[in-house]
Amino acid sequence: MAIPVSQKLKYKTIFAGCWLTMAVLDVLMIIGLLVKIPIITVYSLLAYFFVMNTSVACNTFAYIGRSCESAGVSIATTALWSVIVIYALVTPTMFNVLKPAGSFVIFGVNDLIAGIFSLVYLREIYGLSSEYAKTVY
Fold this sequence. Notes:
The protein is mostly helical. It has five helices and no strands. The mean pLDDT is 87.
C-alpha cells in the first residue's frame, strides 16, 4: 500500500517546496500568455492546481490544527478564508485591469513570498507530540 507523499515529507518541506514550485508554474503561465502559446498556460495551470490541491491546501489545516490552540485555529482559519474571499473578489478586476499575465505576476510574487516565508519562519512540528507541537510558537 502506497503512503501519501504528505506522510513522507515534513511540513516545512511541503510548504516551502510547493509554494516555490507554484511560483515557477506562475512564471510558465505568464510566458505562455505573453508568447501566445495556450498549451503552456493550460498545462501550467493544471499543474498549479494539482500541486496546490495535493500539498498546500490539504496540509494547511493539518499544520494549523497541530500547532495552535483552539483560539489560534479560529484566528488562522478566519485569516485564511478572508484572504481567499478577497482574492475571489479582486481577481476579476485584476484580470480586466492587468490582463491575465499581470495577474499571474501578482500571484507568482505572492507564491514566492509564501515560499520564502515558509523556509525562514515556519517551524517544523512533524513527529512532535500534539502537546509539544502547540508550544513551538
